[in-house]
C-alpha cells in the first residue's frame, strides 16, 4: 500500500527500505540547501538542549565531547606512534648497573 505522505516529507524512521534511495535523492545538495540543512540542525539542537526553561550543562557537554572526538580523530595518526608498548625502549633495563659489577668482593 502506498503511503499518503509524500516521501520528501517523511522522516528517516518512516521511510521504507525500498524508498530510501529516492528519499535521499530528493534532498537539496546545492550550497544553499546544504547551508539550510546545517541551519535547521543548529536551531533544532539549540532549541532542544540550550534554549530551555530548566536548562542544564548537558548541551554544552555534548558539544565539548563531539569536539574532543573530532580532534582525536584528526590527530590519531600522530598519537598512535606514541602509545606505550609492553616494553618501550626507553624504559627497558638492558644492562645491569655497572657499579655493582665493578666492585671486587672483600
UniProtKB/TrEMBL annotation:
It is found in: Mitochondrion membrane. It holds the Pfam family WRW. GO terms for cellular component: mitochondrial membrane; proton-transporting ATP synthase complex. It comes from the Eukaryota. The chain crosses the membrane at residues 57-76. GO terms for molecular function: proton-transporting ATP synthase activity, rotational mechanism. Belongs to the ATPase F chain family. This is ATP synthase membrane subunit f. It comes from Theropithecus gelada.
